[in-house]
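Why does residue order matter? Because the sequence determines the fold. Keep that principle in mind as you read this record.
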Amino acid sequence: MLGALGAVLFICAAAIIFYKNTQQLLASRGLEEHSQQVSSLLEISAQRMERMDYLGRLYLAGRNKDDLNTVQATAAQLDTTLAQLENFIWDSNQRSRAHGAHDCALELTRQVNGLMQQDTEPGRMSLTRKALECRDIISRMQVEEAALLKQRMQIAHRGTYRNLVAGIAFLLVSLTVVLTLFGFLLRDAGQRMRTEEQLFETNLRMNSTVQTLQEKLDENKLRAAMRGELQISATPAEAHQIVVRYMAQVVPAAKITLLTVNRSQQILEIAATSGGQTEIMDGVPLNACCAMRSARLRHRRPGVSEIDCMHFRGAPPENYICLPLAAQGESLGVLYLGCPDTSTCSRLDSHLDFLEGLMELSSMWIAGLNLRARLEEESIRDGLTHLFNRRFMEIALERELRLAARRKGELSLLMLDIDHFKRFNDTFGHEAGDQILREVSEILRESVRTEDIVCRYGGEEFLVILPGMGAEASFHRAEDIRQRVSKMRLDFHREAPKEVTISIGVSTYPQAGQAVEELVRSADRALYSAKERGRNRVVAAESAIAV
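Structure:
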């Protein structure tokens, strides 16, 4: 920095010196040219004076009018030249001589004009003396101007020499400064290169750190998004799909399958897959997966762990990962991640900790959803028959009745009761009664449509909701159920098979009632009528037709 500043100051000083020398040189050249011009004017003045003297003598000798005109013209030119010379000269001595020469020329012109009017010998002598005087003045001026010209030429030559010497000196100093600055630049360039190398290495480390932080940020965003999706999932099935979808975002090329433990806690069932992956078998035992046996992550790869799991349809792949799902000491299932290529395996290895974290998060949510599903099912299902309970029936019947009213459709209820159920309980015990309830429940499930709702109303009573079914169709459906039950035979304590019959009351909206209580009451009255008429029959609420 200091070197560059010194170089700038030096160049400025050299420029000022060159400028002053150049100005002096130009001034010297100007003075030289001025002296040359003055000498030229003096030479012209001397020639015109001699011409004037010569022509004046010629006129006096011949009295030629043309000579007279020439003399007068030459005198006028001489006067003009001397006046110009007087104004042009800068030197004071030369200017006074030029003034004297001008006056002398005027007097010479006057004498010439006087002789032209009266020619006398004294006049001619006086003219000759005046002409010599004028030529003498001009000669002295020429000598003086020649001396001034020589002096000024010497000054100009010295200025040129000084400029040349100064230029050479400036060139040498400039080269020295340039070489010095070039050395500084080379030194600075070396330092800059070393600094840039350090910056490059620092940038590489920073980029690596930024990349790591970005990956962590992306992982946190993905974890937060997955947590948000799991929070709004309503069923375990939805949670299973969410887990597979987000795992596929971490390793898009991997083959992913989520297997969950079924209700019996005996087998693994496929819950969700990515990309239609079909290399995993469905319904395999729990010990078919090595990760389930060890209850920890298991990475199967050549040369490290080569024991294959037994849940593959064909030949097991060489490289895959199994992540167990477990929460609160309960095994929930296993996540299979297949590696179709080495890049996918490398990505899996680099994200194993993150994948395990996602699985821990997923396991907690899936366990919670499983618990909630079991609690919800227990709250709406009968524990013995697994049919809907009376509480769910009331909610469902209210909903279906409103739909029927909005659509102006029909809805029927079947109220069923097992005949002589108390006698079975008293004679054969409660186990026999439970068996009858389960068998009748199974027949009811098999005899209705998907949209129909079968509920255990209480004790040995059942209620079936038939949305969109009219009185006649519901009556025939009830009759079909009655006949199926009547064909059922049960063995109790190695005795002869016992026949089981049921009585059914049918009520239909809107004929039998407009509200839930009215429909249930109508079906109950029809059921009571069927029992009074001998049981094992179907009675419709309105017509009371018995079969």
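The CA atoms of residues 113 and 131 lie 14 Å apart.
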